[in-house]
User: What shape does this take?
Amino acid sequence: MNHNLYLYLLVAAGVTYLIRALPMTLIRKNIKNKFIRSFLYYVPYVTLAVMTFPAILDATTSTWSALTGFVAAVLIAYFDGNLFKVAMGGCAAVFIVELFL
Amino acid sequence: MQTQENKKWFLAGMRHGVPIGLGYFAVAFTLGITAKSIGLTPLQAALMSFTMHASAGEFAAMTVIAAGSGYLDMAITQLVINLRYLLMSCALSQKVSERVRFPHRFFISYFITDEIFGISSTVPGELNPWYTYGAACVASPGWVLGTFLGAVVGNILPANVASAMNVALYGMFLAIIIPPARKNKVIAVIVLVSMLASSIFTLLADIIPLSSGMRILVLTVVIAGIAAYVHPVEEKEANADES
Assistant: This one.
């Protein structure tokens, strides 16, 4: 069967967009339920933490450089918090460690 | 006054969008290389990135395209891989004011990526849509351009530079979650538990086969659910954390 590439992309983009847009456009009121409010408040922290670790350990060519990058990023985030410094600090740590591996 | 406020948020968004854009560029570059390998032209690859803004989703889309599977397969694959955005969208719907109208909600939704959601959902107080737009107008070109160039030139970055750039996005996630964890013990515990649980599920991948998208979704629902039950957030408390 021959498929059209643009139709593929349309389906993929359409589904992806609907998932992102439905709650945002349909839930217009502030939710009063305390449990749901708390749940949604905690969502970003859980999601980002789950996505970061342990996936970061496989992101570079060596687990050790990745682990160093992770530790460096956590420390910079803890003491400074600047988004750019944390991201670049993590990269720099990986780069330096890999020079010695 | 309101315009002034919007402009302030837009510029803040742009500032925070810079590291996202750089990280995106590196990741999207790899995406472009893959796109080239399955026969997409650079413009088609860029179109895919512009319309989807989703790394795992785009890799999956290319797998479907390369395999020549049906359109329904494409739809289902995208639904499963991107389901976490549904949850992010719910969370963001509570982060903007009730007064924010449909057009804004429509456009914010377009930019719900892991990273832009991350910074948007953790700004102090309510989210001004212009903050998200500011971040997106810096980050999105990094994503689209990275895909385009990756598909044009293929693999040219030195291996060690590419390797180092790969942690940029994770670094950003850490920059979003660690400072609040420092101020708030509950969030600190949640972050630790989340990383631990995620590690356990990754180690047990052979016994409990979950795609990474599903793992993120399931763990988020369970851990955020338990946290909300054990430690419901007081209205005042939430605002105090954020300021």
Chain A touches chain B through 76 residues (CB under 8 Å).
